[in-house]
Amino acid sequence: MEHRSKETLNALVFFALLLLFVFQFALGPDRERLAAALPGLLWLGFVLAGLLGLGRTFVLERENDCWDALLLAPGDKSAIYVGKLAVNVLLMLVVEVLLLVLFTFFFNVDLVGPLPALALVLALGTLGLAAVGTLFAAMTAQVRARELLFPVLLLPVQVPVLLATVKATEAVLLGEPLSAVAHWLKLLAAADVVYVAAGVLTFDFLLES
Amino acid sequence: MTADPLIRVIGLGKAFGRHVVLDDVRLEVRPGEAVALLGANGAGKTTFLRILATLTRPSRGSASILGHDCARAPERVRPHIGLVAHGAYVYEDLTALENLRFWTALAGLAADGAALARALAAVELERFAGERVRTFSAGMKRRLSLARFVLSRPRVLLLDEPFAGLDQRAKKWLEGYLEAFKAAGGALVMATHSFGRELALADRLVILAARAIALDTPRASMGADEIARLYRLHAEDGA
Question: What is the pTM of this model?
Answer without folding.
Answer: 0.80
